[in-house]
Design a protein that fits this description.
Number of helices: 11
Largest sheet: 7 strands, mixed
Helix content: 25-40%
Shape: elongated
Order of helices and strands: HHHHHEEHEHEHEEEHEHEHEE
Structural class: alpha/beta
Strand order of the largest sheet: 5-4-3-6-9-11-10
Radius of gyration: 20 Å
Distance between the termini: 69 Å
Length: about 270
C-alpha cells in the first residue's frame, strides 16, 4: 500500500464517523507516523509503506475515530504562532486563550518592567508566549508535576525565560506582581458528561472543579493583595457571576461571541 492509498482509506474511515476535518487529520496521522512534513506526504503519493508503518497509521486512525484529540496524536499544538508539545497531562491550547495573551500585553504597557505570573500554566503556552513577546521573565505555576515537566520542556525548546513553581493557585507568591493571568478549571463537575467526547480525553483536574467557580473565586480573593491586574479565562455561562465582583472592570467575548475573559483591577 502506498501513501495515496492509505490517505484515501484513512479519510474514508474518518468521514464515516462524521469528523469534519477528515482530510487534514488523515495527512497529520500519516506524516506523524512517517516523521515527515505535509509537503512530503502530498508530493510522494506512490511511496510504499512498510507493514509497521501501515499498522501504526491504522492504530492512530482507530484512536481518532473515537475522537481522540489530533493534538495528542501529533503531540503538538500551535499557540500564538509557536508550536507547543502537548500530551494527556496538559490541556490542548485553544485559540480563545490567545485573548488572555493579547490583554496582558496591552496591560503590561502601564509598567516599565512588568512582573507577570501565570497560574495553572499547563503546557506553558501563556507564560512562554508572554516571555518571548515581552522579552521578560514570567513566573508560572501548576499543581501538576507532570504538567510542569512539559512546560519546562516547551520553555527550553522555544527559548523562553520562564520560572516554574509547583503550587496550588497563588500560594507561592510572597511578593506583589503587576499582572496575574490564569486559565483555571472552570467547568462544573456535574457538566462533565455533557462535554464533547474529545475534551474528555484532557486532564480532568485542568478542566473541572466542584462548583465550576470554586477555583476562580479562590484566585480572585488571593489576587486582591498580590497584583494590580488579574486576567482570567472564564466559562461561557459565568458572566453574571463574574460581574458581581466589585473589582471586575471588563468581560470580553470570544470569536463565537461568548463570554470568555474577565479583567480585574485592584487599587491600593
Amino acid at each position: 500500500m502506498n501513501i495515496r492509498e492509505i490517505l484515501a482509506k484513512t479519510i474514508e474511515r474518518l468521514k464515516r464517523v462524521s469528523i469534519l476535518t477528515a482530510d487534514l487529520d488523515a495527512v497529520i496521522i500519516v506524516k506523524t507516523v512517517l516523521k515527515q512534513d505535509d509537503l512530503f506526504v502530498i508530493t510522494h503519493p506512490e511511496q510504499q509503506l512498510s507493514e509497521m508503518e501501515k499498522e501504526a497509521i491504522e492504530n492512530l486512525t482507530s484512536m481518532r475515530e473515537k475522537l481522540y484529540p489530533i493534538g495528542y496524536i501529533k503531540n503538538s499544538k500551535e499557540f500564538y504562532g509557536l508550536e507547543f508539545y502537548v500530551d494527556e497531562n496538559v490541556l490542548i491550547p485553544r485559540p480563545e486563550t490567545e485573548m488572555l495573551v493579547d490583554k496582558v500585553i496591552k496591560l503590561s504597557g502601564e509598567f516599565e518592567n512588568p512582573k507577570i505570573a501565570d497560574i495553572g500554566t499547563g503546557s506553558g503556552c501563556i507564560a512562554v508566549a508572554l516571555s518571548k513577546l515581552l522579552n521578560i521573565n514570567v513566573i508560572a505555576s501548576d499543581i501538576s508535576y507532570k504538567a510542569l515537566k512539559i512546560a519546562k520542556e516547551n520553555a527550553k525548546r522555544l527559548g523562553a525565560n520562564v520560572e516554574l513553581v509547583q503550587a496550588d493557585t497563588l500560594s507561592f507568591l510572597k511578593k506583589r506582581v503587576d499582572i496575574i493571568v490564569s486559565n483555571p478549571p472552570y467547568i462544573d463537575k456535574n457538566d462533565f458528561e455533557s462535554l464533547q467526547r474529545d475534551v474528555k480525553y484532557e486532564p480532568r483536574e485542568a478542566l473541572i472543579c466542584s462548583r465550576g467557580t470554586e477555583i476562580i473565586e479562590k484566585i480572585i480573593e488571593q489576587s486582591k493583595n498580590l497584583c494590580r491586574y488579574l486576567v482570567l479565562e472564564i466559562g461561557y455561562n459565568q458572566k453574571n457571576f463574574i460581574e458581581r465582583f466589585p473589582h471586575c472592570i471588563e468581560v470580553e467575548n470570544d470569536l463565537s461571541n461568548l463570554p470568555r475573559m474577565a479583567v480585574f483591577r485592584f487599587d491600593f
